Amino acid sequence: MGPYYTNTYTNVYTHVYFLTEVSFPLERTGPAMSSSLLLPTADAPPARKGAISREDLLAATLKIIGPNRSLSTVSLREVAREAGIAPNSFYRQFRDMGELSVALIDLAGSSLRTIIGQARERATSTERSVIRVSVETFMEQLRADDKLLHVLLREGAVGSDDFKHAVERELAYFEDELRVDLIRLAAADGATLYQPQLVARAITRLVFAMGAIAMDQPPERDPELIEEISQMLRMILTGSHALNRAS
Description:
Structural class: mainly alpha
Strand order of the largest sheet: 1-2
Radius of gyration: 23 Å
Number of helices: 9
Shape: elongated
Largest sheet: 2 strands, antiparallel
Number of strands: 2
Order of helices and strands: HEEHHHHHHHH
């Protein structure tokens, strides 16, 4: 995971596009050389930009896919049009759409890890509160306007092999960071978890699986799902503590 995506993820959250100048051709009305401005049509493309950044292209792609569309269905020309550039300008930042898509998956993973990690740090030192805060934060990101979490959930299920591998890599990062937190919390209570890496894996996979279900359900169900997921996670941790005492 490169530092580029960790340091710049907020740029994509807040990037807003404005068309600053649109010029329209003059319509010749007769020999008197009078002229009038033609009104733009509803399908007029965005004004071309002189320079483009990776953040511009990632933000444009997020706007295209929304909450339901897979990255594998997005074309380079669509991204260029949304970003307001000529298609050839795309190659100044990415080799192809595959590289852009993997960069977006990496960005989604690093952004979510940062947000949830900060939430865990703000929680009190008990397992119960950390679990609850983590699940609540996860659900908040599921409903966030940027839909970055949707990228991970969707591409991990229906994306190409390269996209699935990129999602799998991000989940492995989640598991490693969670393992460290779980060991720290258990030690604070004078306890030891049984196979903490496996516990972290079970928790991560469960939360993302439930997130995929929640993605297609109305937000009104979120409190019920938060309670259900939290209870499942407490069961996993209780089982790990019991296995450690029995071993």
